[in-house]
């Protein structure tokens, strides 16, 4: 079975972009690949979250992934900080990365406005490359915003292999049609948790989901016969949450010029709520059992750590470090 790795930051409530762009395929791929999924808790240190919040969000993110269908019996589900090999390999890989490669990263340019130019933020993609290379992952299911980081991981792997001999597998991203879910209130920008009105959170209640979808931008350019970006985005979300029949039926109505956007929105509200209801219920029941969540994390660590430490030993040997 091919090895697959992907991670998610514990940065507050997840949204439907995270689900449709990444987690939905994590769940679907569990049976066909050797899957390693993790909470990238060391990745959020660059935003300096309050320690009590970070601890809580890490457990909440584990609970949400399980509620969405990530099955710890069918994959290795772990928390990055529990595997110290990530930090050690990241240090070694820094020497195979240039400043120019890091300052070019879109995420660094965007986030450094908000969070300052820490070296941690600059080096973020090196830690991400570590997360992937440490497990010899061939495939990384992510949303489109992570593709640039994946390309860098490939470059780091090549640079390392050229110096120390074939050590790392070059990973490839795996994207779905929903790889870039746009903000509901501004379809030119990516859906993001930090902008109000942009996202539907997986923990949003009925009133919030309804209001956010009803307000979603659908404006069309009267001089264009192309579907507007806002409507296209709603169709992508519909395909993610509705049955194929419903999506086709709405697509046909659009083609015939018969589609009322209000009808499309009501259908979306219904389907999103039908999806979120059971997920939120499972999430709450998992959070009420922190001992169970901690057990899941412990078991995941026990499975991931031997793989990470065996790989790190090979890396160190290939570099000429004493064993
Ligand atoms: P993060 O936590 O920002 O997002 C988790 C996943 O959700 C995807 N995503 C989206 N997909 C479609 N439309 C959107 N609007 C949208 N917003 C987010 C992301 O692309 C991602 O797949 N750096 C990563 C976490 C990470 C990682 C890794 C991923 C750390 N190490 C190693 C893969 C492999 C991140 O910040 O994702």
Key features of this structure:
323 residues; Rossmann fold; Tyrosyl-Transfer RNA Synthetase; 2 domains
Architecture blueprint of SSEs:
Layout: E1 3-8, H1 16-29, E2 34-39, H2 51-68, E3 76-79, H3 85-94, H4 99-103, H5 106-115, H6 119-133, E4 139-141, H7 147-164, E5 172-174, E6 182-183, E7 186-190, H8 206-214, H9 229-241, H10 244-255, H11 261-287, H12 290-319
Parallel strand pairs: 1-2, 2-3, 4-5
Antiparallel strand pairs: 6-7
Bound molecules: tryptophanyl-5'AMP (TYM).
Please characterize this protein's 3D structure:
By secondary structure, the chain is mainly alpha-helical. The protein folds into two domains: 3-178 and 289-319, Rossmann fold; 206-284, Tyrosyl-Transfer RNA Synthetase (Orthogonal Bundle), CATH 1.10.240.10. Helix content is 56%, strand content 9%. The chain contains twelve helices and seven strands. α8 (206-214) packs antiparallel against α11 (261-287). The longest helix is centred in the last third of the chain and has 30 residues, at 290-319. It is globular, with a radius of gyration of 21 Å. The protein starts with a strand and ends with a helix. Tryptophanyl-5'AMP is lined by residues 5-9, 17-18, 21-22, 40, 43, 128, 131-132, 140, 142-143, 145-146, 179-181, 190-191.
